[in-house]
Amino acid sequence: MEPMLSMRTAVVLLVLTALGGLLMAGIRFAGKPHPPTWLAMGHGFLAGAAVTLLVYDYFTTGLPGMAQLALLLFLLAAAGGIVMNLGYHWKRLALPKWLVVVHALIAVAGFVLLLIAAWP
Questions:
Q1: Looking at residues 96-119, what average pLDDT do you find?
Q2: pTM
Q3: Which residues are CB-neighbours of 33 under 8 A, at least 6 positions away?
Q4: CA atoms of 16 and 82, how far apart (whole Å)
């Protein structure tokens, strides 16, 4: 698969991921301790699919520099998502609002970089 098509496919998957992320952030900031499990799992699954495409491209055909930086940011955002899921959600603890915001900011920065790389 050519890297430009993979990056654009990842962008589409990440748009869907972001919509779920916005919904989950809204749920958290509305006062509930955490979103429904199915929504969190779907969010992680879509993000994981997009990151998998980018990792595949990185190791096979290569990625432009901006897309490489985007991938790094997505991996950092994923680490934050894993911490929120395993450290808080599964223990039925309220997600820390600061962690939700940091996770989102890192993911948005990665998304913008990937968007610029996918449509130069």
A1: 97
A2: 0.94
A3: 92, 93, 94, 95
A4: 19
Whole-number Å distance between alpha carbons of 54 and 74: 10
Q: Per the structure block, which two tokens stand in for 37?
A: 């499990």
> Can you state the angle between helices 97-118 and 65-82, rounded to 10 degrees?
160
Instruction: Tell me the chain's radius of gyration from C-alpha atoms.
Output: 14
Distance CA 81, CA 40 (A): 9
Q: Give, as one character, the DSSP assignment of residue 46.
A: H
Mean pLDDT (the chain) is 96
Residue 1 pLDDT > 70: no
Sign of CA dihedral 68, 6, 57, 85: positive
Pick the closest to residue 85 from 35, 50, 46 (CA basis): 35
The interaxial angle of helices 97-118 and 3-29, nearest 10 deg, is 160
